[in-house]
TrEMBL record:
PANTHER family per UniProt: F-BOX ONLY PROTEIN 22 (PTHR14939)
FIST domain residues: 35-236
Annotated localization: Cell membrane
Domain FIST C-domain: 237-385
Keyword terms: Cell membrane, Coiled coil, Membrane, Transmembrane, Transmembrane helix
Protein name: FIST N-terminal domain-containing protein
Amino acid sequence: MVDQMQWTNALSTRSSLEAAINDVVEQVVASLTAPADLGLVFISSAFMSEYTRLLPLLAEKLSVPVLIGCSAGGVIGRKQTGETEEIEAEPALSLTLAHLPGVKIRPFHILAEELPDSDSSPNAWIDLVGVPPSPVPQFILLSSPFGSATNDLLQGLDFAYPGSVVVGGQASSGFMNNPVGLFCNDKLCREGTVGIALTGNIVLDTIVSQGCRPIGQPLQVTKAERNIILELDEKVPLMVLRNLISSLSEEDRTLAQHSLFVGLAMDEFRMNLHSGDFLIRNILGVDPKAGAIAISDRIRAGQRLQFHLREAEASSQDLENLLQEYQNENENTSQPSPVGALMFTCLGRGIGLYGQPNFDSQLFSRYLHDIPMGGCFCGGEIGPVSGRTFLHGYTSVFAICRSLGE
């Protein structure tokens, strides 16, 4: 009999940590028919005072060679009914176990001060992570939102591991300045990044839904400095933006007051740009005197951008389009079926965006049936756009796990 990949998840909303652990361990162990190689645990920030107890209590009930996890303002998992639920701002615990035959799993904890310099060779990054670039590893990262140098780490991994998929998110507390927890085997960490490198018979397919729709037309940056746009199509950026907003419907003008973003075109040569072709970035502020616009990323002359709006309908449509695309691709190939998934979504989505719970996870389940899924609400989401890895906001990142096949 062929040893097949297995993936299972359980969610508990018990308010006692001991009871929640008993709940999830009992369910996941019962549903695996082979030993677990990997565990992922996500704990609600409602248990903040008990983070130190999580790993010892789990160790009493569960033996798994590699375990990582983090705290979150909300957690995602599968109830006993079989439905995936997103539990926001309430006590909850999500535990995923996976049996991964033919897969090497390397856990790590990296602090910001350990990162190589920007001019270091790929070998410096490979030595840090402890995994060769071939065969190509897949990475799952969970990082602190404070001082973890996440962007530098992502650039370094892209540099040293071309072709690797990197997904994950930043731990969250649900409230500003509350401590977060990162978990790596038997260790509770408060800073840096914990993660795993997966090598061998495994693929992580990704869906990255940034949830915006473009407005106006693509524009070319004709003058810029660092993250400041000084000219758009040789015009004053603020004037261009004001003219665009004045041309919108009343509803969109209202939306632009609080949900306006910039989309940076990721392909220099693509003429017809669509929603998936942009990296969405925040507008940090404007200089009324100079007419300049500051954004949350570096920008250079020659780049193209388009202004975007974010709202529930656009977010829903964006995710649905991506799920349809993924489903169509799978139907036309003979690759192995997915066995499990992880979901890393922004604290700004969920009920706050849609006005109802479980929206993104239920939409996912409509296209990928009966796939066990765990995950959490993040302070920033990690996922690829056009082959490069970025730290996002207001985004849902799905990592869909399957075996490599023949």
